[in-house]
Each structure stands twice: as structure tokens, then as C-alpha cells.
Amino acid sequence: MLLVDDDPLVRAGLSFMLGGADDIEIVGEAADGAEVSALVDRTRPDVVLMDIRMPSVDGLTATETLRGRDDAPQIVVLTTFHADDQVLRALRAGAAGFVLKDTPPAEIVAAVRRVAAGDPVLSPAVTRQLMAHAAGDPGPGDGRRSRARDRVAALNDREREVAVAVGRGLANAEIAAALYMSVATVKTHVSRILAKLDLNNRVQIALLAHDAGLLEETDSP
């Protein structure tokens, strides 16, 4: 994995913490987003732990650049905030999740392992918090809403129901109970939604459902 943070003390702490895990190898470190693309080319990490705020090229720009690559590594955003606009932007760009800088070491190690295995590192509770934060925004502009609606039009009715449930932060078992289907079927629907909409993870499903106004529709009497 690759560590990206402008604070050498933070990098040293993360390197010590993560390097102690037998199944995690630190292949490089960067102090700014401007260094990331070349370092990824050279080291080919599976996971990048990316600070948001850096002096030259911030972590958001670096995340967007990396996720535009065909061989993009998974990215975990490192932040001091639970749900600010920058975290939402990073998740829209395809980050697999985020961890707070004061997260206990064992949880950061577990988050890296989950992302390396292809799982997002946002719990249903955090997803709900993010959606609440997004709902508090002035709202997506007409252009974003129109584009989001065009994309979700590719979903069939059942997939649309699952997308709305994901947008509400429900876990697979909760979706299964609400929609009267098995957990395996929910997982299949989620996989199909990701493939149809060319998304990276279920948090992006939730954000797209929000942008398209699907959550508002189901809230209407």
C-alpha cells in the first residue's frame, strides 16, 4: 500500500502501525498529491491511504486522477472530519471509504484489509450520516440531477428499489427483510447496479440515488 500525507509524523505513525501487519506491505510514501501518479506507476499499490488536505495538489484532485485510470488502486481517504463536502467529493470520485485520523490503529489496519479485499469501509450508519449531510446541501444542480436520472433509468424496478434502500444506508440483511428477498439476491442486485451504472461501491450508489432524487420520491406521501 501507499501512504500519502504531508505530515511526516503522521506518515511515520501510519507506517509503523500498518507495517506491523504481516499481510500489509508499505511500498511507498508521498508528501503531496503531485507525487502520487508517478509513485503509483512505480510501486503499483493495491491500496492508497490518502490525506485530503495537502499544500500543492490535494488528496481530492489526486483521488480523481487515480480513479480515472484503468488500473486504479483502491483509495481510502484520511480525514479529520466525518462528513464534510470534501469527503463527499472524494467518495463521488470513487474512493472506497474514509477513516478518521484519530481512528484506533487496529481499525485502520482492518479498513485497509477490507478495501484490499474489495469491500467499502463505510458502515450503514456512516452511509446514513453522509446522506443526511448531502441532503443538507442546497441540492444537486439541474445538470447533475438530469445526468443522475438518465443513469438510473438503466435500472429495472427491483434494482431501483435496492438502490433506494442502499441510499438510505440499509445493510444487505435489512434490505432483504424490507424487500422480501434473500441476502444473496440483494448482493446480486447490488453487483448488477454497480456494473450497469459503472460505479465502484455502494456509497456511490447511495450518492447517485440522492442526486437523482430517488430518496425524495420515496419520502413523498
TrEMBL record:
Domain of life: Bacteria
Gene3D superfamilies with a match to the protein in the record: 3.40.50.2300
InterPro entries in alphabetical order: CheY-like_superfamily, NreC/VraR/RcsB-like_REC, Sig_transdc_resp-reg_C-effctor, Sig_transdc_resp-reg_receiver, Tscrpt_reg_LuxR_C, WalR-like
Modified residues (4-aspartylphosphate): D51
Segments crossing the lipid bilayer: none
Pfam families, per database record: GerE, Response_reg
Keywords: DNA-binding, Phosphoprotein, Transcription, Transcription regulation
SUPFAM superfamilies reported in the protein's UniProt record: C-terminal effector domain of the bipartite response regulators, CheY-like
Keyword tRNA processing: no
PANTHER family in the cross-refs: TRANSCRIPTIONAL REGULATORY PROTEIN NARL-RELATED (PTHR43214:SF24), TWO-COMPONENT RESPONSE REGULATOR (PTHR43214)
Annotated protein name in UniProt: Response regulator transcription factor
Species of provenance: Streptomyces labedae
